[in-house]
Amino acid sequence: xxxxxxxxxxxxxxxxxxxxKTIVVKYGGNAMINDELKAAVIQDVVLMACVGxxxxxxxxxxxxxxxxxxxxxxESRFVNGLRYTDAGTMEIVQMVLCxxxxxxxxxxxxxxxxxxxxxxxxxxxxxxxRRMANGDYGLVGEIAEVDVSILNxxxxxxxxxxxSSVAYGIDxxxxxxxxxxxxxxxxxxxxAALSAEKLILMTDVQGILRDVNDPNSLIKTATRAxxxxxxxxxxxxxxxxxxVDCCALxxxxxxxxxxxxxxxxxHALLIELFTDEGIGTMLSL
Length: 285
Fold this sequence. Notes:
Blueprint: H1 3-18, E1 22-27, H2 35-50, E2 54-59, H3 62-71, E3 78-79, E4 82-83, H4 87-111, E5 116-120, E6 127-131, E7 141-146, H5 149-156, E8 160-164, E9 166-169, E10 178-180, H6 183-193, E11 198-203, E12 221-223, H7 224-232, H8 240-252, E13 257-262, H9 268-274, E14 281-284
Parallel strand pairs: 1-2, 1-11, 2-8, 5-8, 6-9, 11-13, 12-14
Antiparallel strand pairs: 3-4, 6-7, 9-10, 13-14
Helix pairs in contact: 3-4, 6-8
């Protein structure tokens, strides 16, 4: 059997397993700004849809927001790792995420032979949110409700929803102002609301490392209970904590598996989904 045929045969049971299932992918990091990686992600997502996986792509856009703020004379400010979002910054966030980035991804999917529809959390009031109450972050929100009807309609019509994480504000004092939402959190809550088979977070690290200085110390699988022990032991720390918390949020909401993948590896999605070895860290209950 040729190597190519072996790869296809190895993928067959996974294709059969995931056919008709929903997988939510959070797309961000270096994979969004490197042209080769960007093309690979788009190809992966199109292939997933072609083999019958109901694929939802949720994206960030931090570097593009930074670039636009610089062009317009704005200033970035972060509070506890979250972008402080005043009214002027929110206009930039909404313009960049819901406009340029979202439509660029949608266009690339269609150029690769897929069918995509660009959406944001305001569309159909898909993501309803309130301002974060535990700190002064400006127009940064916490999701209060996810209405998946527009996502299901899009998926049922054979399209890939491409979702930017700007939400519909429902605070009485907000007058329905748009709110900036962390894209990882949005992806996790969308996955839970859709009862997704998997949530996949694409990052700029291999996954959870037992020793951050040792690339061979990758933790390939962990349970929900083990995550708490790893945090208590300091293995999960710093920037990995919010990503793991998002995975835990998804698992607690009924998602079967959550993955933290290295988006710097071309075709990371296909390797994880359709090969025996997989990559990254897989989390489950």
